[in-house]
Design goal:
- One of its GO terms (cellular component) is cytoplasm.
- This is GTP cyclohydrolase 1 type 2 homolog.
- Pfam families: DUF34_NIF3 (PF01784).
- Belongs to the GTP cyclohydrolase I type 2/NIF3 family.
- It is a single chain.
- This protein has 3 domains: about 5-100 and about 335-360, 3-Layer(aba) Sandwich (Udp-n-acetylmuramoylalanyl-d-glutamate--2,6- Diaminopimelate Ligase, Chain: A, domain 1); about 115-130 and about 245-335, Udp-n-acetylmuramoylalanyl-d-glutamate--2,6- Diaminopimelate Ligase, Chain: A, domain 1, CATH 3.40.1390.30; about 135-240, Alpha-Beta Plaits, CATH 3.30.70.120.
- Helices cover about 30% and strands about 30% of the residues.
- It has helices spanning about 5-15, 50-60, 85-95, 105-110, 115-120, 150-160, 215-225, 255-270, 295-300, 315-325, 340-355, and strands spanning about 5, 30-35, 40, 40-45, 65, 100, 125-145, 170-180, 195-210, 230-255, 275, 280-290, 305-310, 325-330, 360.
- The strands form 3 sheets. It has an 8-stranded mixed β-sheet. It has a 5-stranded mixed β-sheet with strand order 2-6-5-4-15.
- The termini are far apart.
């Protein structure tokens, strides 16, 4: 029978994909208004939290709003109906609507905003634009009775252990003899109190990223038959998965800058965009960064980009791009709206996997502040 998820459940699953620690320092990600300690019948995904979005949430009986752009970039000095922020907070509290923001962490996360933009553009992702971290890796070694090796192996892999390249559930094991003596008060799976018990066991080892280490250990403990599980955790010098802001991608075939700009317009459904460079020049290597990419034109050039797709381009930065021979396409900041479908689909799939009846919807409110003439 399906059940309704709590806010804590939903954000736990969400942060397994887009953990808060990926966010840039000072970025106010996470809970903004309300509580996660409640049942959530409906989630709404939005780019921005404007008053029109909150009104839409109220009309649709939404319990939780997940936004890309934080509602509160700075602390409020007062909550008053005389300004939009105050009215928003009052409405949210009155109608018990929780707001959670995933900003730069969703930009950095694989499968997040920048990957969604690349998918919309039909380009093949090759690398990150700016590396921000390499995830730390650990070796987990657990000693398992041979009768339960399959159960424990599956639990480890299902929890995220053993990912090497395009392979999952990777483990190595060797047979051996485990020995133990249950003492007074023990409740052993095998053996008798006060007597040495010897068991045919395997030493099973696997590689685990830091982000899922606690989840993996919990799953291992639940699948293991012993009252006290014997295991070791070793930090590794190996580098884990690269994470970073923006993406370096490649077109299947070269095309003119003008043709690619038309593709960008169509992909993001924008009526106009700004173009820097020679429209007749051929491009193949594409840098993509949602939002404000002014600080990263040099990085795009160093990475070998022929064209940089980003937003909020400044006048003088456009001159700098021309000077270094980098073409730039600026379709605006609002094209990050592609994250709405991405987050919606992630949650919908997760709810189906978990047999959760919680509904998820995409906000239809228009939050692009600019009009084009």
């Amino acid at each position: 029978m399906s059940k309704v998820a709590t806010g804590q459940d939903i954000i736990k699953w969400f942060e397994e994909w887009s953990p808060k620690q990926l966010a840039f320092e000072g970025d106010p990600v996470g809970l903004h208004v309300g509580t996660l300690n409640k049942k959530v019948n409906k989630v709404m995904v939005t780019l921005d939290v404007l008053e029109s979005v909150v009104d839409e949430a109220i009309e649709n009986n939404v319990d939780l709003i997940i936004a890309h752009h934080p509602l509160l970039f700075k602390p409020l000095k007062q909550v008053s109906p005389d300004n939009e922020k105050g009215r928003i907070v009052q409405k949210l509290i009155k109608h018990d609507i929780t707001v959670y923001a995933a900003h730069t962490n969703l930009d950095v996360a694989w499968g997040g905003v920048n990957d969604a933009m690349c998918e919309a553009l039909g380009v093949n992702v090759k690398d990150v634009l700016i590396e921000t971290e390499r995830e730390r890796l650990y070796k987990v070694v657990v000693f398992v009775p041979q009768t339960h090796e399959n159960e424990v192996r599956e639990a480890l892999g299902d929890a995220g252990a053993g990912h090497i390249g395009n392979y999952s559930h990777c483990t190595f094991q060797t047979p051996g003899i485990g020995a133990f003596k249950p003492e007074e008060g023990a409740d052993p799976y095998l053996g008798t109190e006060g007597e040495i018990e010897k068991v045919d066991e395997v030493r099973m080892e696997t590689i685990v990223p830091q982000s899922v280490l606690k989840t993996v250990l919990k799953a291992m403990d639940q699948a293991h038959p012993y009252e006290e599980v014997a295991y070791d955790v070793y930090p590794l010098e190996l580098q884990g998965e690269k994470k970073g802001l923006g993406r370096m991608a490649e077109l299947d075939e070269p095309m003119t800058l003008e043709s690619f700009a038309e593709r960008v317009k169509d992909a993001f459904d924008v009526p106009a965009l700004r173009l820097v460079g020679d429209k007749k020049k051929m491009v193949k290597n594409v840098a993509v960064l949602g939002g404000d990419g002014n600080k990263y034109i040099s990085a795009a050039k160093r990475k070998g980009a022929d064209v940089f797709v980003t937003g909020d381009l400044y006048f003088h930065v456009a001159h700098d791009a021309l000077g270094m021979g980098l073409n730039v396409i600026d379709p605006g900041h609002h094209v990050e709206k592609v994250m709405k479908r991405t987050v919606h689909d992630f949650l919908k799939e997760k709810f189906e996997q978990k047999q959760i009846s919680t509904d998820v919807m995409i906000s239809k409110a228009h939050t692009e502040p600019f009009q084009f003439m």
